[in-house]
């Protein structure tokens, strides 16, 4: 299933996953499998990039605080045909927009590092 990592920010768990994909159907299946594995998670945000296609979702987080930071990690590294999903289990402390952006970006960066080093 590619790469996986976990970070803790103010008691919230952020679990990042990344995988190489070859189609939107494969990306959707990857995301669905992670959602099924983490049914109790508060948020399952994602971004994926294929030639001529890019999609992202904040999954209920404030707009631009989850999907966009994940997408930015993919874009900055110049990756194609990659899906990144970050699962968040809320720890009881609000992180604010800046904290969310940093946490989602960090989890995505660690996950992507795992597939680029394969």
Write a brief caption for the model.
With 118 residues, the chain is of the alpha+beta class. 38% of the residues lie in helices and 31% in strands. The two termini are 12 Å apart.
Question: Radius of gyration in whole Å, from Cα?
Answer: 13 Å
> What low-confidence regions span 5 or more consecutive residues with pLDDT below 50?
none
What is the CATH architecture term?
2-Layer Sandwich
**Largest sheet, spatial ordering of strands:** 1-2-5-3-4
Structural class: alpha+beta
Tell me the major beta sheet. 5 strands, antiparallel
CATH class: Alpha Beta
CA distance, first residue to last residue: 12 Å
Residue share in helix: 25-40%
Oligomer: single chain
Beta-strand segment tally: 5
Number of helices: 3
Tally of individual domains: 1
- Examine the coordinates and then state which fold CATH places here, giving the name of the CATH topology: Ribosomal Protein S5, domain 2
Mean pLDDT: 93
Label the overall shape: globular
Task: Tell me what you see in this structure.
A hairpin with a 2-residue loop joins strand 3 and strand 4. This protein has one domain: Impact, N-terminal domain (Ribosomal Protein S5, domain 2), CATH 3.30.230.30. The model has no long low-confidence stretch (mean pLDDT 93). Helices cover 38% and strands 31% of the residues. The two termini are 12 Å apart. The longest helix has 21 residues. It is globular. A five-stranded antiparallel beta sheet has the order 1-2-5-3-4, with helices on both faces. It has 118 residues and is an alpha+beta fold.
């Amino acid at each position: 299933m590619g790469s996986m990592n976990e970070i803790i920010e103010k008691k919230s768990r952020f679990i990042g996953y990344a995988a190489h994909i070859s189609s939107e159907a494969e990306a959707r299946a990857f995301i669905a499998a992670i959602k099924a594995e983490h049914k109790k998670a508060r948020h399952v945000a994602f971004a994926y990039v294929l030639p001529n296609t890019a999609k992202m979702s904040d999954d209920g987080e404030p707009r631009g605080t989850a999907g966009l930071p994940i997408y930015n990690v993919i874009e900055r590294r110049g990756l194609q045909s990659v899906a990144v999903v970050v699962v968040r289990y809320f720890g009881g402390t609000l992180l604010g927009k800046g904290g969310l952006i940093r946490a989602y970006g960090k989890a995505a960066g660690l996950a992507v590092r795992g597939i680029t080093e394969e």
